Queue: 4 jobs
Job 1
Amino acid sequence: MLELKDIEAARARIQNFVRCTPLIEARPVKNRFWGEAALYLKLECLQITGSFKARGAVSKLKSLTPDQIANGLVTASGGNHGLGVAYAGWLAHTPATIYLSHNTPPIKAQKLESWGAKVIFEGQVWDEANRAALIAAEKQGLSYFHPFADPLVIAGQGTLGLEILEEIADIDILLVAIGGGGLISGISLAAKAINPAIRIIGIEPTGAPTLYQSLKAGYPVELAEIKTVANTLAPRQSAQINYDIIRQNVDEIVLVTDEEMLVASRWLWQEMQVAAELSGAAALAALMTGKINTENAHKICVLVCGAGSDGIA
């Protein structure tokens, strides 16, 4: 199991290559829906490449030897992790190959290519693209970057927990979207170590309740199908390392619909002028729809984890 010291070590590795993103209070606003508590937004949508994924990718990169880097990097992604790995390849001046499933928005492929990455489409969902990436890694001797089940990647994502709690130590509730579980694994480890009383709540789409169903079953389940357009939150299966960390550190997982995420992304744009994709607005959607018990909470933090134009209309 990872420890706080591993996340602190990751911060030392990545601090010169990623941004310490703003943590702002959502005030003043005309449409206040969360009661009397103070609401803070951690704007990781302003991170290099547009999401938190750069943290984990650079943490992994800076742990590799020159020989491991030389042949190139490879991963499978819904888009954001691929951008993090493309950025890592750009930093290391080494080729990066990103396998995308066919449900990935074309804009993600364009952004990947702008970082110099090679893009290959494979399969209908991330899990199928990932199998192709693993085969390529084996055949071509590439360094494979798992998007959520790698301890080095998890530690990199956990640096967000350090940033948030060092700025506001007494947050009562922290809301974090879940895809494969790497982000909430790292953040929950860091946040619970610093403030054991904090409530960590994960949010998944109703069409991809991977960890929600896994916790109910008592083991990492594989979903039969995916029914969400928020493809960055939509692996059919998580991994044991993420399941174990989440079971120990996450207090609750709630589900939101694609429409609820869209409404939240529109609120972020119209009220805060923050451009977030559906996954970036998922945590706020859970709060907006009253699915979070905020009784006795004085400070709530929502992680806006990814940039996009979903709410701009």
Job 2
Amino acid sequence: MHPVFLRLGPLTIRYYGLMYVISFVLGYFIVRAEARRRRLLAKSEDVLDLLLVTIPLAVLLARLYYVAFQWEWYRAAPWKVVALWEGGLAIHGGLLGGVLGLLIVSRWKRVPFWRLADAVVPALVLGQVLGRVGNFLNGDAFGTPTTLPWGVVFPPGSPAGDLYPGQPLHPAMLYEALGNLLIFALIWRLRRRPAQDGFLAAVYFVAYALVRFACEFFRGDALMLGPWRAAQVASVLFILGFGGWLLAGRLWRASRA
């Protein structure tokens, strides 16, 4: 693997950024189709407004979240805060930014927040799949050393290769990419079933929390919250909150049957 896709004179296009661009383009068409099917955003301009609000907020908070947990390192090199091409976007910060963007757009366009979230979820999780592929090519979000035959030796100059030179590592980013692809298949299958607003979003948060909790055991660059892995703490909160909401809704419907 190699982090650089193309060099055009002084311009360097990296796979990491390319994967995000592809995910944004695919996301536009998926969200447009789902929003129209749900009769939320009738105009293509409305979908573009949605992406223009949510994507910058998601990227900004994803970066700030990551930098906050790695501040001891960034304090010694503050100019690195803007070096997004080197990796360092935390999905949980991105989710916070995305939720904030959805809240803004739902009020702006006067559409139900949770129904809009359900329309966005398939694009979100597919974007995560592509993002993890970008992580693999960039050599970040890597795993711990392993003797398993599919261990990957990352090249010098990549975050993984610099921290673990010459050592085979778990391709933790590909584990998560596979898990997210399965979540996408589940969400895509469920999306046409009649359900309460927010159902798909809740399924996504629970399913992703389970995948991320498991993958964190193999991560070699986990963000820490004291003695705990921050992503696992967030995963437990997601499972309790959204899993409890799904269970309560099921019990309520059963009591009314």
Job 3
Amino acid sequence: MLSVIIGLLHPGAMGAAVGAQLVATGQHCVWVPDGRGPATRRRAEAAGLVALAGVEELASCEVVLSVCPPAAALEVAQQVARTGFTGYYIDANAISPRRSQEIATVLDGATVVDGGIVGPPPHRPDTTRLYLSGAADAVSRVRALFADTIVEPVVVPGSVGAASALKLAFATYNKVSHLLAAQAYALAGQYGVDAELRELAAAVFPTTPLAAPERLTSVGQRAWRWAPEMAEIADACRDVGLPAELLDAAETFLEHWRQHKDEPDLTLDHLLAALSRPRA
């Protein structure tokens, strides 16, 4: 595989892990440290990413990969567009199909490939997929970049927006089911039957979040990212005439946990207690 210069924006937990996979296959990955904090810098260095002097240097990249919070996806694309970038732009964020198409319009001088990452940051095989849609030749080129990594590239038939639609459809079930489990345990706890709920869930729904409430703390730590994703899913629903009230409620629900952003010692008790307090 020929090595290309890939700009990665920005190396959070997911972006840095994806970048590390690309670096391991011989790709030259760069990033822009402007405005980033110490934790981001540590992740970028550990992943083997090379710092650029400024965002304008992205213009010389052959590929730019955007992995950022959903609310920032359009702004990041606009920043890249202002550099005059003309390569392949992969938007791998949890955004609505309409937002993906807006980004393609903003980057009219580049070739945009729609992406959707499903699974955790890639640290072991068979856990993380990157769904891709768009022009066939562009998707094929991007797919080849990940062929030798543990990130599994999967082509989705259709134009820009199709991969995002699949990502959001999956997230609707996957993420809202975790919120329902949290609500269920908060309710059971108030009435003193949470232990019984855990036993019942283990017997009837053994593979669901309801049977493993200890995993819910990771949801609280990521609520600041999940809330805007719920807003994107709600927009995607409205765009095709589907009810969006459930997703609006999910966004509101997650606001109870914003103060727990990346909190390393968060416990289930603290997480559930936050549901009884006014939103931050």
Job 4
Amino acid sequence: MRKAFLQLHFAILLAGFTGILGRLITLNEGLLVWYRLFFTTIFLWIIFAFSKEQKTGTVKTLWPVYAVGGVVALHWVFFYGSIKYANVSIGLICFSSVSFFTALLDPLILKRKMDPREVLLGILVMAGIYLIFHFDPKYKTGIVLGIISSLLAALFTICNKILLRSHSPKQITRHQLTGGWIVLTVLMPFYLFLFPAPSLIPGGSDIGWLIFLSLFCTVLAYNLSMSALKSISPFTVNLSYNLEPLYGILLAFLIYREDKELEAGFYYGMTVILFTVLLQSWRVWKKKA
């Protein structure tokens, strides 16, 4: 059990590094995500080639998985855009608004009764983001991009609930990220027309960080989470992932000293959001008890 918890929290720490690397890599957000998906897809298919997993599914049955992969790719583009236009801390805090959009979209898509408590908690998160927006207006572009990123994250998470009824997690991950790369490849000419980049080829250090992002923060983090699930309940895993923004923000404070860039409004908003996350965690934990 101890080993499983170490695996889980190492996976969360790796996930927290994605924001740090988003600021470190000099490519714009579109190219960053394209290369991340490119390397990740290669690694996943290599792992699949050497695994004992049977090939299942056809283009007809897997096309929804590929389509949701496009949503994942766009989510990452907006997430890294939020970091580029603001900073890591803002991007990660805005990601917390995924709970608000999930509370609204989940009942609509999955045809279940809306939980007013979930909506209220989501509104509290949005209030926290508004505090940051109100006191630190220079981050408004990054905040808007971060909120769109969260909306897309809520959408693909709900869609994945449906896909898991007929596909395995490994199959979804492999085909979904492949689909994300294909969708982004199709969109890339239009994206680069609107947002020209000085160079399409990453430099040596960028390539190294992109491989680290793909291999460790994506592939390894996913496999560690799957290994932890053998000994830990899915509930505990999902609850623990609430620490990802906190880990990422602490890393941003340590590495980039973003604590010196941020004003009081950020901390007011972060306090409201962290309180909401703790309240939601306690509510779900009480329900499970």
